[in-house]
Amino acid sequence: MQRSVVLCASLLIPAMMSACTAFVVNREGRTFIGNNEDAWSINAQVRFEMGRDGGYGGVYFGHYNGSPMRVMMDQVGMNEAGLVYDGLRISTHTTAPTPGLKQLHFDALMPLVMRHCATVQEARAFLQDYDAVLLPSSMIFLANRLGGYLIIENDTVIEGHDPWYAVGNWRMASCSDPSTIPIPRLQDGRQLLLGGEGSTLEEARDVLAKMAVCRRKMGEGTLFSTLFEPGSGKAHLYFYHDFNEVVSFDLKEELAKGDRTV
């Protein structure tokens, strides 16, 4: 495993929060990247953005909960090069600004990354010019078509290339052993991956389903789930933790139709 950790923080105990999960698995020459977006929301959207001026186009998934304090924002996306990102909430930890580095919020920074970067290595190099101080309660998870992954927290950078890797709403700077993270459904998914699952679309979907949730409060839980095949540019969307129904997109075909939101 190729892995580097920069400025690891001391152990942090996160507050209870709604959990999102994400994973990347690379087996038998195929890569799948799955994401569960767990939130109460009144709507969701799929947005296609064409590449311009030599940049990559992509497909982005977002939602809006109706609060006047929030706006519609992309949460998950994949570009034409097969780079995928997700934003996950984690426990709050503040850091001091780094002199000389640019500052951009997540919703302004990630479009730049996705337009200009094809791999996690390129994304890491690009992000070195930006201060992660504006991520006190967030993690950026990126993965690419060959199975490489990158985690950005405000005090930590982790890069790796394993057969599989999975994250939840847990600050990885505080974690030396992912098997101890106290998120049961994350561990359920990890067990499937540890057992060799994830070499087919169906197996990757089963891992994604294992990590999804339906909560009793207002019936909410996983709002939508995405499963990407970055090698072929396919994106599969499951709504409201129902994995019996799927809407699939071919990114090349969709971008040929121009910019649009559905």
Task: Note down, in words, how this protein is organized.
This protein has 262 residues and is of the alpha+beta class. The chain has one domain (4-261): 4-Layer Sandwich (Penicillin V Acylase, Chain A), CATH 3.60.60. Helix content is 17%, strand content 32%. The protein has five helices and 15 strands. The chain has helices at 106-116, 120-127, 184-194, 201-210, 251-255, and strands spanning 4-5, 21-27, 30-38, 43-49, 58-64, 73-79, 84-89, 138-143, 149-153, 156-160, 164-167, 222-229, 234-239, 247-250, 260-261. The strands form two sheets. The protein has a nine-stranded antiparallel beta sheet. Strands 11-2-3-12-13-14 form a six-stranded antiparallel beta sheet. β5 (58-64) and β6 (73-79) form a beta hairpin. The longest helix is centred in the middle third of the chain and has 11 residues, at 106-116. The radius of gyration is 17 Å and the shape is globular.
